[in-house]
Amino acid sequence: AKDAGRGRCMCYEPGMDADRETRNELELDLRQAIENGDLRVAFQPLVSASNREIVAVEALVRWNRPGHGAVSPDVFIPIAETTGLIEPLGLYVLRRACEEAHHWPAGVNIAVNISPGQFRNPAFADQVGAIIGETGTDASRITLEMTEGYLIQNPERARQAIDRLKALGLRVALDDFGAGFASVGYLRQFGFDRMKIDRSLVLALDESSRARDMLQATVALARSLDIPVTAEGIEREDQAMILHLCGCDELQGYLFGKPMPAEAINAIFAGTDGA
Ligand code: C2E
Ligand code: CA
Ligand code: CA
Ligand code: CA
């Protein structure tokens, strides 16, 4: 690894390198992938808790790194966030989702994840507006999902950014609820249209009966603010039943469908239409 230091400044410290080396290589390859249009988008259904029909589809980015295979978004999204690559990446995913949504029934909503790095840019709302215009998408079909991080860091700016997006007619959801520190009060404070319960809370149902009481109370609080709740990471029928009983109106998880290529989700809708 030492000769990999060629051409670098003399302050190169051999001790900290492997990690940084890998990160730099990952970043370079990711940059290439974005430039070459090599990223893919997978689509996962969200179903109505009452009749199990597909009510929305979440777009999830996928990267098949040459020579390494599939890299998890949990690995490369944080790198994209610290390098500015998240901006082109995020806009690409939004555009792909809007393009594919033409193949879905008009009532099926589009969910797209956004990171603070995108959201922080004052031009973001305009960029989103441009994509909606160019793809001819009804803005009210789109829900942007965001996690709490930036809300805590910079509540003032976050509120403004959310307001700009809502002014375009988009909806916003608080993602990964229960995985961090966000409280139900955030829903009102930031004007969220939906809350998504993190998979960790769903898994906790297996551990204790208190988990169920807590989940039920949390969902009830959100609903008392008129904010509907999606539960994520549902893999079993018993989980689906409990979350429905707790008041979640939408469910998402492998039980209903894994993230799949565009052709596969489109085929599901084509089949439904033809039936
Ligand atoms: P997320 O937004 O919470 O997305 C849900 C994750 O849970 C996805 O992982 C999905 O594949 C996985 N999942 C769904 N149902 C189940 C289930 O029943 N069981 C289990 N074990 N997992 C399930 P994925 O696709 O690996 O994405 C991980 C995270 O990366 C996402 O979490 C999101 O935070 C981020 N991410 C993915 N795509 C994008 C993107 O386009 N932009 C941004 N900013 N972040 C993204
Ligand atoms: Ca999400
Ligand atoms: Ca989530
Ligand atoms: Ca997550």
From TrEMBL:
Extract the signal peptide range: none
Domain EAL intervals: 23-273
Q: Which domain of life is it from?
A: Bacteria
Record-given protein name: Bifunctional diguanylate cyclase/phosphodiesterase
Q: Which residues of the full protein are shown?
A: 453 to 727 of 735
